[in-house]
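Issue 218. Parser rejects a valid record. Input:
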Amino acid sequence: MPHNQDEERAGEDERTPMLGRSSRQGKPDNDDAGDSKWSILNLLQFLGGGIYAPDPSTYDPIEILLNTEDEKERDDLTRKWKDNKLSELNFVGVVSALLAGVLTSTGSWPNILPNGQASPWSVRTSWYCGIILALFSILCAADQTVRLHRLSSHRDGLDNIRNLLAKNGKANVVSGRRKPSLIQIMTWQMPVMFLTTATLCMIVGMFLHVWSATTHLKKPSFWDDHTKVAVTYTVVAIFSIIVFFIGQVSLFSSVRR
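Output the parser choked on:
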């Protein structure tokens, strides 16, 4: 009997590691699933480019200034965020005004369509949408600039800015930390969103404009002047888009580290 008990214990000792290994083998699957989930989220954030889906460079400074314990440092961080935001709004307003000027001048661009035909409705629609988006970018930038200046002029201006940025203006009951308001983050991103969308509308309109000249020919040829313009523009545009996205990937990777 003692001999049988020893054999049973030995058998249990031999089987236990196998169970341990099998349980550990199941975990990587969950980790892989989690990694794939996070990779999808990262992809969505990358496609947002920190514009449509604000990245940590937008969220983290606000969260830090809301939860810094030292009052002097908290005020310094708030003042730094305000100054940087004002500089950003000023830049966005200037660029939006330039873009709006370019878009409004598209009506006087040389007509590349044969026989003086009017541009297709899709071209005009893209450019008109770009104009209204650029104008709203200017309007939002001006509005937010004025509001920041007025908030800062108050005696408790820095506290008012933090209360505006915080979710519900109060700290979380459980963690004791103040979280940035998602609505506020998206609101302060609106000028950049409008500007980016207006730029996309102009690029799409230019694609439609150059290629529309190749579809209105009575006797189309494979390699006429209109096709040369369209192909050359497309090659340069695609190259620029690829280089742009390479830069975005490098910036996105640096922020995520």
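Fixed in the parser; the record now loads. Helices lie at 2-48, 56-67, 71-104, 121-152, 157-165, 182-212, 225-256.
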